[in-house]
Amino acid sequence: METLECQPLYLDIREFYEGLNMKVDQQIPLLLVERQALNEAMEGEKRGHHHLPETRGLCMSEEQIVSTVSRRPRFGPGFSIIELVTEPFRLTRQCEVTAILILFGLPRLLTGSILAHEMMHAWLRLKGYRGLSPEIEEGICQVLAHMWLDSEIMSGSGSNIASSSSSSSSSGPSKKGARSQFERKLGDFFKHQIESDSSPAYGDGFRSRQRGCAQIWSRSTLDHIRFTGSFPL
């Protein structure tokens, strides 16, 4: 519901990327925002592919001022409550990525999958991947969102996609224990949304990796994409 509340999830996903040997070195601000602020930030971006009309996250590269969501106490005669407020936050660009914005008020698993998607956009920009087609870039980002959901809903403890590549990852079920049946069903639903997306960039891009990119996190696959702009056959 607020930016501060989302930071532990942000750290979990950064660890997930580290477990895939894809560490994001820059400390990118993560802000939860209202839909109006997200739409305004999208209009200010000169590049990027947006999943209209359902955009719920954005990896920013332009300098802007956005309104972020936070909580603060409000006191009155005989009562005190916590209310949600928005306040301006100036974002300045010191490199290729300014901030990641996520729509506030979404379930944790959905917020995490969106963040994993946007983090891949950030990783690609910071690592110098240029000129990728929407299908390739969005497809890669959807793969990482799908992988993170897999890592969260796997049954048992200690089972984690990231840990299969590196023991340094401590995110996912190994820290949180087995997921409830409700959480597993919710995660499966969000995975199904990614798998069945009908858009050319997001849906077709994700499904194209199944033809030649099952191990998207491998260095050879990423090198192939960097030099050819396409998934390996």
Automatic annotation (TrEMBL):
<feature type="compositionally biased region" description="Low complexity">
    <location>
        <begin position="159"/>
        <end position="174"/>
    </location>
</feature>
<dbReference type="GO" id="GO:0043130">
    <property type="term" value="F:ubiquitin binding"/>
</dbReference>
<feature type="region of interest" description="Disordered">
    <location>
        <begin position="159"/>
        <end position="178"/>
    </location>
</feature>
<dbReference type="Pfam" id="PF12315">
    <property type="entry name" value="DA1-like"/>
</dbReference>
<dbReference type="InterPro" id="IPR045218">
    <property type="entry name" value="DA1-like"/>
</dbReference>
<dbReference type="InterPro" id="IPR022087">
    <property type="entry name" value="DA1-like_dom"/>
</dbReference>
<protein>
    <recommendedName>
        <fullName>Protein DA1-like domain-containing protein</fullName>
    </recommendedName>
</protein>
<feature type="domain" description="Protein DA1-like">
    <location>
        <begin position="19"/>
        <end position="227"/>
    </location>
</feature>
